[in-house]
Recover the amino acids of this structure.
């Protein structure tokens, strides 16, 4: 398995506009067919063109693993039904104030780190829909934990200022290797430039050699 460099909308922020599990890559409506085919091939998944709240920033707005999907309350009924009809995932709305759910949590098929900004009473729903154990924590001082980490079952990368103790806790919950890293030539908000599942890893086109090495240590063991 290689780490492949790619861009979306002529930019390296592939994790802002897209998100992935082991069956699907979720891409904005109207996405170029050729690019959709390439990404599907790299990640060994089927492409599904969707919108959430009539927006293209899917990676920011939704949280997904192989068991389920959480969508914000701003998602329309038509969009919600489209997900239900075209996937066999457990699809639910999480009605919380901070509705950029992709920035509020980072999940794989074993566990999830959830922002302290999400009310405690909503944690059970997250656990039930995604069928995982979750932990509420800041990462490197950031509440937007989904922005500063990216995970698959094979590994996790986190903001470069994450301390050792937090890395150990995250690794125990999510399994796999963990590395502190940046993306796209020094960006610490790693999920903005990574699409990772258990088949492959695609990163933003500006990701440099040392960053690829860190990502290899996390994901390709």
């Amino acid at each position: 398995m290689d780490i492949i460099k790619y861009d979306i909308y002529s930019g390296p922020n592939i994790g802002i506009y897209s998100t992935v599990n082991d069956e699907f890559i979720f891409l904005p409506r109207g996405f170029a067919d050729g690019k959709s085919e390439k990404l599907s091939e790299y990640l060994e998944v089927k492409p599904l063109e969707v919108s959430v709240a009539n927006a293209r920033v899917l990676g920011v707005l939704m949280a997904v693993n192989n068991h389920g999907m959480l969508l914000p309350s701003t998602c329309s009924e038509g969009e919600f039904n489209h997900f239900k009809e075209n996937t066999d995932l457990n699809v639910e709305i999480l009605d919380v104030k901070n509705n950029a759910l992709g920035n509020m949590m980072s999940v794989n098929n074993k566990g999830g780190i959830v922002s302290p900004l999400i009310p405690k009473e909503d944690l059970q729903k997250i656990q039930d829909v995604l069928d995982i154990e979750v932990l509420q924590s800041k990462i490197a001082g950031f509440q937007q934990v989904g922005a500063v980490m990216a995970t698959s079952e094979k590994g996790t990368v986190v903001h470069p200022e994450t301390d050792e103790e937090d890395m150990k806790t995250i690794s125990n919950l999510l399994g796999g290797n963990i590395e502190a890293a940046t993306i796209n030539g020094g960006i610490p908000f790693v999920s903005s430039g990574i699409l990772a599942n258990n088949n492959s890893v695609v990163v933003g086109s500006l990701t440099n050699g040392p960053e690829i090495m860190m990502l290899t240590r996390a994901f390709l063991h």
Notes: The helical segments are 14-17, 33-43, 58-61, 77-86, 101-104, 123-130, 164-174, 209-219. The mean pLDDT is 96. The first helix runs from residue 14 to 17.
